Amino acid sequence: MAYRTHHCGELTGKNTDEIIQLSGWVSRRRDHGELIFIDLRDRYGITQIVFEPENAELMKTAKKLGAEFVIQVDGIVRLRPDGMVNSEMKTGEIEIQAQSLSILNEAKTPPFEITDRTSAKEDLRLEYRYLDIRTDALKSQLLLRSKMYKIIRNSLYNLDFAEVETPILMKSTPEGARDFLVPSRLHRGKFYALPQSPQTYKQLLMIGGLDKYFQIVKCFRDEDFRADRQPEFTQIDIEMSFVTAEDVFSVAEEMMANAFKEIKGIELTRPFRKMNYQEAMENYGSDKPDLRYDLKIQEFAEFVKKSEFNAFKSVADSGGRVKGLVVPSGAKYSRKVIDGLTDYLKKYYRAKGLAWMKCENDALVGGISKFFADDLQKEIIAEWGISDGDIAFFIGDDESVTLPALGALRCKIAEMENLADSEKYEFLWVVDFPLMEYDSDAERWFSMHHPFTRPILKDLPKFDENPGAVRSDAYDLVLNGNEIAGGSIRIHENELQQKVFDLLKISKEEAEEKFGFLLKALQYGAPPHGGIAFGFDRLVAILAGVEQIREVIAFPKTTSGISLMDDSPSFVDETQLKDLHIKLSDKNG
Fold it and tell me: Where are the domains of the chain?
């Protein structure tokens, strides 16, 4: 090789007395007067270089070296002296006695220490992302991502899937988030859209008879500012013909088993646990429950009806929900802590308040306990399994408030009490989602997933009179409280697809305008088909043990969708706008 015979992470005692050549970045320089030590770094590791006084010219050049200089060194591999071996490094038993040194490129003083990533705030690291990538943490996370690409591809190739690319410039079919639009220079007034998902294309591939398809694909959503979201994200997209949901589960579980075995050394238990949507919401207040800890939500309405607590009684009598959960050893919570939890639920989950009672000496005290007679308290303690030192929290409100608020409280308490084992991985299939959800403001039904989701056929008799009771053949894969994948069996009959469009108040004209090409294709012998899409960024983040998906993306945007490194989005030249037949009404507006 022109610049190196070895990488900086591979030399050991077996290479002693070899003449080698290394190239890389100066990670650290230690000048001991008569000796200069350089830690030379590349992607593969660090090797210690020693410059000795016998070669004055070489020492003079070595003294010029600064952090992140790019250099080339020729030298002899030798064992480190006794007591100087670093057992934590692969190269820790050797060092290189330098024979020659070339400075390939000097470097300005970095804006933060490459060896200490915590020395800089995230905004600064995002601005200098190319330097951030040199840090051990980010570099290892990006290499983990690369390894995941290989594992996923190998898993699906072994199952006879074909990898097919679908268009990035496509027709705008807005569903859910806003599309990113791309103006056409050649077709004045017309726009392409960047895909939120390859949903229609993968269905067309099944109609085309490809049978098994996948791609690891970029998707785009023009969303308002949201924490830990990116306007562009990566998805593992999978579609299969002549399958049921169980067939899709088997493929997804095979992928996950391979990934966790190769990366974590963990043998996953299969098949994964399943839970229907209603059970998840009732017991955990979430359709993506974290099962690493218990804290189940329990029914409280029957006790309320026997109590004197009129605030909750009126909720129960008006068709609302009164539920709660028990926090073991939670009686230690001060009023300040309880008030903090209450404010959190009010601010983010529309809860009107958070009621509570503590258990002391086999009795309930504090909070709303005075509204519950002694005999009724004993019933509650026995039924709910409350012990001395526990605290019980309660919320009474509309179901749309009670369940999510208690689900959020459950997660918040788990965070406060450190209940989730970071080394534990709990997979869960959530199934039987409602097909539709009603928006009272818009006075119409909307698809809970998307309008191509197939209803559970035995629920079809309810379609006209009670659409909210119709379940979909849709499913989410949840891992430790994160939705990492979602999919469904699709509608393959034109008549059923039209029936769903009618319920969604999508007119034939609108359906033809948005999805005409798919509806046309369904008329030419569409097979039963279904699939799933994994959020690749989130999956890698979980495996890497990091909270933010920005940590596993090479060049991410901020929460507000800005790239601090290259200053995008940015204004463009007036000539470019003129070519696209676009005139801005107000650059600053």
Answer: 13-105, 139-273+428-558, 293-419
Task: Return the exposure string of 372-400: e unless at least 16 CB atoms fall within 10 Å of the residue's CB, then b.
Answer: beeebbeebbeebebeeebbbbbbbbeee
Whether residue 345 contacts residue 393, with contact meaning beta carbons closer than 8 Å, is answered with: no
Nearest alpha carbon to residue 22 among 91, 82, 120: 91
State the greatest distance between any 2 C-alpha atoms of the chain, in Å, as a whole number.
93
| Phi, psi values for residue 205, rounded to 5° | -65, -35
Whether the predicted pLDDT of 588 surpasses 70: no
Q: Are 139 and 43 in contact (CB under 8 A)?
A: yes
CA 188 to chain centre: 38
Read off the pLDDT band of 61 (50, 70, 90). Answer: very high
Per-residue pLDDT of 374-398, as tens digits, reads 999 999 999 999 999 999 999 999 9
Radius of gyration of the CA atoms of the chain, in A: 30
The pTM score is 0.93
Residue ranges of E strands in 481-577: 482-489, 529-535
Domain boundaries 139-273+428-558, corresponding CATH code = 3.30.930.10
What letters, b where the CB count within 10 A reaches 16 and e where it falls short, cover 257-285?
A: bbbbeeeeeeebeeebeebebeebbbbbb
pLDDT (0 to 100) of residue 134 = 97
CATH number of 13-105: 2.40.50.140
The residues, any chain, with a CB within 8 Å of residue 205's CB and separated by 6 or more, are 164, 166, 213, 239
Which CATH code fits 293-419?
3.30.1360.30
CA distance 405 to 285: 7
Strand order in the sheet with 391-397: 298-299, 321-327, 391-397, 355-360, 363-365
509 token code pair: 């004209």
Report the length, in residues, of the chain: 589
pLDDT, mean of residues 308-335: 96
Following DSSP, what letter does each residue of 264-309 receive, concatenated? H-----SSPEEEEHHHHHHHHSSSS--TTS----EE-HHHHHTSS-
pLDDT-derived band at 175, boundaries 50, 70, 90? low
Cα–Cα distance for residue pair 289/326, rounded to 1 Å = 17
Strand partners, 485: 477, 534
Express as a percent the part of the chain with pLDDT over 90: 87
Domains 13-105 and 139-273+428-558 share a fold: no
